[in-house]
Amino acid sequence: MKKSLFIIPLAAIVSSCGTLSNVTRGNQYAQLYEEKPITLLVMPPINNTTNVEAKEYLYTSISRPLAEAGYYVISPMLAMEVFKAESAYDAELFVDAPLTQFQKFFGADAVVFSEILSWAKKGFGIETTLRYFIKSAYTGQILFDRTCELYLDLQVRTESNSALAQLVSLAASAINTATTEHIVAARKANYYIFRDIPRGKYSPEYMKDKDVMAEKKDITARVK
Question: How far apart are alpha carbons 18 and 60 in whole angstroms?
């Protein structure tokens, strides 16, 4: 099947803590390399916050980085229609259940779960903590598991130290925070989580990145 190609701008990094681990991707994601999943099914996020819209923000932005990493991702729009028709919208019902039904119905090799642990505006920015884990549709084993605590810094800074300049900067920061769509935070968090995933069949790096040093499973990032 033909895979769509996307170009995504890299997030401007302010700081990233605890990035590199002491193991290679081949060791950290050994089961994923062994199973070699090609087709992924993305489940609706599990929302553990009071932000009811966070689920939609995240779900609409998950497929892109996975497709860029070389995987065939089943259309989220198509999958959502099926989930709703089959009363399968609540992904938490399937976390510990056999996933073979998704392999038979969708042809998925693995199922992508996401969990929203926190999601809120804080200061002049958006703070979110997300966990992603990918489970084999055949064995139910976890092939990939990462957590990202991300702060999207929306503060507008000025080089001038005058009182007026600082006041204007504060006002601009407040407006920027109020008007920035949460989807931006979701996209950047997804970028950080999936940038370490072993490349899929449709990537030129497929099965060639085993010796790349893996990142830590739990990461913290501050981005603009």
Answer: 28
